[in-house]
Every structure is written in structure tokens, then in C-alpha cells.
Amino acid sequence: QVQLVESGGGLVQYGGSLRLSCAASGFTFSSYAMSWYRQAPGKERELVARISSTGERTNYADFVKGRFTISRDSAKNTVSLQMNSLKAEDTAVYYCRALGGYSYWGQGTQVTVSS
Q1: Which of 10, 1, 13 is nearest to 88 (CA)?
Q2: Which of 7, 25, 35, 82 is the least buried, fewest Cβ under 10 Å from its Cβ?
Q3: Average pLDDT along the chain, 115 residues, taken 10 residues at a time
Q4: Sign of the torsion angle spanned by Cα atoms 105, 67, 74, 21
């Protein structure tokens, strides 16, 4: 059974930091690129950051460049998103996605940044 379980969300003040984690199981983690998406109320889901299956390549949305860092640990089958200098507009539900032979999504974790 494929599972992507996000954790680490919560309430943080403007300028603060959070670290999200996504624990993967039920598929060959090392064969899948991993991504973080987010969806704010009333808005479409958008890509935040992506890391290749080997971890060698990363891509970021312009609105998080220099503030967020994506990483993966193949020994633990986890992908993380370190979020620094958080802004109110970063408030959203953050989703983990695995993309390879198939596409899998986690259930999401809420991040709320208070101004």
C-alpha cells in the first residue's frame, strides 16, 4: 500500500521557519522524483519545489527561491522542505507528491503564517 505522510506543519509567525517532512512507503522511493505543492484557499494547487530521484537536481518556484530548501533521504525514504523567512502568503496546505511510473499524493499538512 502506497503511503505519503506529511508532517511538520503548524502555526508560525512572519519571518519564522518550519520544516516539513514526508515519509514514503509502498513504492520504490529511489525511482521517483519528489515534489512539494501547496494550495491556498480559493487558489489552485501550485508547485513549490521538486527534487530528482537521485537528489542531484532541484527546482524551485520563483516565490520560494532563496527561502525554501528541498532535500531527500533515501535511507529513510523521506523528503523534506525547510522553509525559512516565512510570509503570510505562504499560508496553505502543503502536499507531498511522488512522480515516476505513477503519481502519488499525500494528504497534506496545514501551514499558517501569522502576520
Answers
A1: 13
A2: 25
A3: 97 98 97 98 97 97 97 97 98 98 96 95
A4: negative
- Using CA atoms, how far apart are residues 74 and 53, in angstroms rounded to an integer? 9
Query: In angstroms, rounded to a whole number, what is the distance separating the alpha carbons of residues 73 and 63?
Result: 25
Output the nine-digit C-alpha cell for 101.
511510473
Instruction: State the residue for C-alpha cell 499560508.
Output: 91
User: CA-to-CA distance for 91 and 114, rounded, in angstroms?
Assistant: 8
Q: Are 97 and 105 in contact (CB under 8 A)?
A: yes
The CA distance from 76 to 92, in Å, is 26
3 state DSSP class of 90: helix
CA distance linking residue 93 with residue 111, whole number of Å: 6
Torsion of CA 48, 97, 95, 20, to 10 degrees: -80
